[in-house]
Here is the input.
Amino acid sequence: MDIRNESTVTEFVLVGFEQSSPSTRALLFALFLALYSLAMAMNGLIIFITWTDPRLSSPVYFFLGHLSFLDVCFITTTIPQMLIHLVVMNHTLAFASCLAQMYLVFGVGVAECILLAFMAYDRYVAICHPLNYAQIMSRQVCVRLVSTAWFFGLINGILLDYMTFRGPFCKDNHIENFFCEAPIVITLSCGDPQFSLKMIFADAIVVLLSPMVLIVISYARILTSILGRASSSGRGKTFSTCASHLTVVIFFYTSAMFSYMNPRSTHGPDKDKPFSLLYTIITPMCNPIIYSFRNKEMKGAMVRALGRSSLAQARSV
Here is the structure.
């Protein structure tokens, strides 16, 4: 079935911040541009050092590099468009562009959920089975886990895109957000949106709660292992290796669960936008900062990378 042939709506209007005053939009543009630039620079630096620094060859940094790559993809699907709309008066988005944007948000977001679960499993193996860590988390296993996250993310994106755009659109085409968010788009359909909303809610339960179960089980066993150790200093050092990952999980899952697992009656533009901003720009920006500030090896690798860059510039001059 050709969705567009069933639709009288050929484009959507992203309301975003268009009702704000010009001075407020200028301030928001400067703020979001700075946050976007910081997120891209930090994630780009982590991708570079985890893929080029031989000292960061362990599985945890392999996963971290892919997490940063997912963050770069995730933030680029929404924020540049929002920055443009803060400057220009035309806030329209073609039907196909809205569909593609939503697919990328779904695909990358689901892949990140699954990857965060695999990172929790990696910490469990490293702490509870240190002698067999290299064998269990071999390079081949890590590649398969990352490929699995991408595969299920992209397949799930197809399903959710279909559920969102399965019905014709012939009503209001104004989206009360700065990007095409599925629950809002579904309510604009001419048909009964309840089935699609329930399917997306059910999918969110599986996609969000299944990885969360793995995360909870992994950290429950990690906690049991930590408490069984006699040295309090050993406990603190072991838990510090997990604190960064836990912080990222809390940020990402809190915002995603509010957006896709709450009844739509509790939502509104004033509630949706802050949480949308949290998981589309704040979380991707905070992830590399959280990991780099709490990890001595990461800070050392960043210093070495920046030092090499400065030396190369000095030689070129």
About this structure: Strands lie at 11-14, 92-94, 174-175. The CA atoms of residues 176 and 269 lie 6 Å apart. The mean pLDDT is 81.
